[in-house]
Amino acid sequence: MPKRADKRTATILGPPEGRPWVWVETEMLYSPAWREVSINGRRLIDFLLIEHRNHAGAENGRLKATHRQLEAFGLSVNKIRAAIEECERLGFVRATAQGFEAGRAKRHPTLFRLTFYAGSIDSSLSPPTNEWKAAKIQKSALTTKGNLPSEVRAELPPEVRAAANVVSIKNHRKRNQIKGKAE
């Protein structure tokens, strides 16, 4: 049975003291939706995570992201719209107010909400919606590279768990075939 962490261990293993940090659920990282996100989609999510952290987690639902900011962060200008649409389709992000340009002097950025954090919906605080759990995904994202830990596999929806088990068996067979040829 694991021992309870003492203060020193908690300090070493805990979040960095006095430094900003964010958390992401392990279940989400193992999800088929997360595996389907493109590099530009990940950059958008990373930018919004930083923006969320910069506002002490109090502005989810009103996170601003201009095209200039996203371009400076590494998104290709011609891929920004596709990244936003992809992240919305996969259920990680929701645009809460569409940005627009009202002449050269006045621009309004799009406002976003990260669905895996509590946030403001219609001016009231609400729990995470975790829309990524119900996202429509491509079959290719159901396949995994390697095995999922049993505790994670047990919490997955049945269709995802079944796909993960099939891939796990196929990977096991491939490893055995390679070992057989090498011997």
Provide an overview of this structure.
About 4% of the residues have low confidence. The two termini are 40 Å apart. The chain has a three-stranded antiparallel β-sheet with strand order 1-5-2. It has a two-stranded antiparallel ribbon with strand order 3-4. Strand 3 and strand 4 form a beta hairpin. It is globular. The chain is built from eight helices and seven strands; from the N terminus they run ααααβααββββββαα. It is 44% helix and 13% strand. The protein folds into two domains: 114 residues, Arc Repressor Mutant, subunit A (Orthogonal Bundle); 41 residues. It is α+β, with helices and mostly antiparallel strands. The longest helix is centred in the C-terminal third of the chain and has 25 residues.
